[in-house]
Specification:
3-stranded antiparallel sheet, 2 domains
Length: about 180
């Protein structure tokens, strides 16, 4: 597949952003390529287009499949597996949020709960340290609970919440005007 300059820029940027978000650069680039390609691509074409090893593509594809961001499909007359990206942005965002919660928030909550439990038998830990661990645990637990409450909202409700933006903050503090963003009038 020949990438236009804009397509190449898009794929490269996703690789950069992916690495900043904790993803392998190639995983992010493959997702971006499949997202923008507009058609299913076989692994060897992905490897050729991105100029990466076929084994790296296979590993990256498995990672993207585990996140449910791409799926395998077939083409008539072609025995190879082809891959397509999820293109619905709301579905994609929901899957990423769910997977990150499973991989990052849930294990952290479990570790903090163990720390709090173990703190009862640790004479070397001070009350302030325990209070900080508890505060972090409670914060993440609240954030996780909030996520659980909103994840099943219909997309239309989520869109409304996003459009409301800072107006939501005024529900708590009537009369208080939100700060204006720089550069906006």
């Amino acid at each position: 597949m020949e990438l236009s300059p804009v397509m190449e820029s898009f794929v490269l940027h996703w690789g950069e952003m992916g690495s900043r978000w904790g993803l392998n650069r190639t995983v992010a680039q493959i997702f971006a390529l499949l997202y923008i390609a507009g058609r299913p691509l076989p692994a060897d074409e992905i490897a050729d287009t991105l100029k990466v090893a076929r084994s790296n593509v296979s590993t990256s594809i498995r990672e993207l499949q585990s996140w449910e961001l791409i799926e395998r499909t077939h083409a008539i007359g072609d025995r190879r597996d082809h891959f397509v990206a999820e293109t619905d942005l709301w579905t994609m965002a929901a899957r990423i949020a769910e997977e990150r919660k499973k991989r990052e928030i849930d294990p952290t909550l479990a570790a903090l709960a163990r720390c709090l439990s173990d703190a009862r038998m640790d004479d070397g830990i001070g009350k302030d340290a325990v209070a900080r661990i508890r505060a972090m645990h409670d914060f993440l637990e609240s954030a996780s609970g909030w996520y659980e409450e909103i994840r099943d909202l219909p997309q239309s409700k989520l869109e409304t919440l996003m459009k409301m933006g800072a107006k939501v903050a005024r529900l708590e503090a009537p009369g208080k005007k939100p700060k204006k963003k720089k550069g906006k009038r």
